[in-house]
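Suppose a colleague, Dr. K., hands you the sequence of a protein chain of 288 amino acids and asks what its three-dimensional shape might be. Before reaching for any lab equipment, you can write down a predicted structure in token form. Begin with the sequence itself:
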Amino acid sequence: MPVNSDTPYIADSDVDILYGLDQSAVTVSELHIEQTYTGTIGLPRINTDGGSGSSYFEYRETYLKIGATELFIGEKEGDGSERIKINLGSVQSTVLITDSGESPDGNTPPILLLGTHASNVINVNRGSLGIAYYPTEVATVATLRQAFFDDATDDTTVYLGAGVTVTNITKTGGVLDINSGTTSFQQTAGSTTIHDGAHTVLNILAGLVNYNSTGTLSAANLSGDAVLVFDQDARPKTVTVINKYSDDSEVYDESGGIANPVILLHNCGDMSTLFMGKDFKLTFSATT
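The predicted structure, expressed as tokens, is then:
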């Protein structure tokens, strides 16, 4: 077992790490989990290994609990692990994910993370990640940076559960699901679906954002060929202002979810990119 300030590598092995998972008293300097590791870390929530055909919710620790100042997942070439569950506890951590294995069931991300320090930073360049993926789980992320290596559309897939407190998101690619509030969000490629929470500002320079939350959206700033859609969820929505900085950007609210839409056109004027359904009033005035 590692001790404080160690730099352990989990690599070139298919041996599972399933028991003795509570190493929360240890904080290593760096923890490396390479793509050459094809075993599993942590237990599944539902145990089906009893051999009797029955299953049960796992009563033992399911995450490897260990502090790590830096966590690296996905280095080198290989198939990777279908289950890596790490709970970083209250230790401030910087995480870099450069690849992942495949989902064990076609749905659950192969990498699941927890950690509650207010200054945690998560960087995802390739692979699939879930943070506080399951109900009742909590995590804190000061900064999430989601990027890509080859394909800006889907090199990365990130799921932020309802228990995630996240402040700043910078997204240059991939698929992102958000289930809680944000303070600052910027996207230059890929797609994002926001299911819940209040959001201070969405800066959408390109790509697609589906806003399904009933939480207040204080401001959305659209430029380039950004697309902002409110129609996936027709419940009433509170949106303070949408700022449109390009004719190519589009807004969809054909379901009329926004009761009193305020859309400001800055240095553009093509209203054919506003898909607002029927029965709404246009008020013209100069923008400042």
